[in-house]
Amino acid sequence: MKSFWKNTRVVSARLAAAPGLLLTLDFDGTLAALAETPGQARLTPEFRTALKELAAAPGVAVFILSGRTLDGVRRLVGLRGVYYGGNHGIEIKGPGFAWRDAGAVKARELVAAAAAGLRERFPPGTGVLVENKAFSASVHYRGLKAAYRRGFFGRMKALTSARGGTLRWRSGHKVFELLPRGAAHKGNAVDRVAARLGRPLGMAVGDDLTDEDMFSSLAGSGITVRVGRKAGSRAGYFLAGQSEVLRLLRFILKARRQGGQ
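^ thats the sequence. predicted structure below, dont judge the formating
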């Protein structure tokens, strides 16, 4: 991975020369700082303004792609003319376009039953938050109380080690996520929206394990930026932290304007 800010000349030239740009952005940890609970995350006015300007720029399509529900991330961002993806790409909605993973829809009852069981295992007093997001479920442990730490990780190890079945586990920042096996992921989502738009230059920015799917999708053809340096990431560039993302958005807008796109 290379430092983004040490390679701005190369990136700016690509952004300026491309007839079109599909800019895909994760939400938590990228557009918004990570919060103690999902409900505490907020998009600041400065970020909303930058996204609005980018979405209005000629040839630029903005795609907010989150692990949150589709409705949830749309409410948090609150902009029209933007593509949104929820549940890591299981559901997508944008200008004149709507799509859901049919297999994940069929697994809704299994997800709901699993989420209910997890809530029984980890009640609110443990500091664990279990979310049923219809097509997936999340077990957040950012607020896990020390007294329950050993029991929590012991139970999660047993659950995540199980093989087979319709659902599967994956991990992220202080979260375990349960998804339908074979369901669409962020890489599929980026490719699906890109195909609809005639395959413009793709740029993706994210900070978590699930964002590696979109980095892999754009490997060799797009511009990929990870928030926070991490060995083994498929991203081509990295930012030091979430505090640099707003600067990045403004850089992209400036490069597009300088290119006359």
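The CA atoms of residues 19 and 228 lie 29 Å apart.
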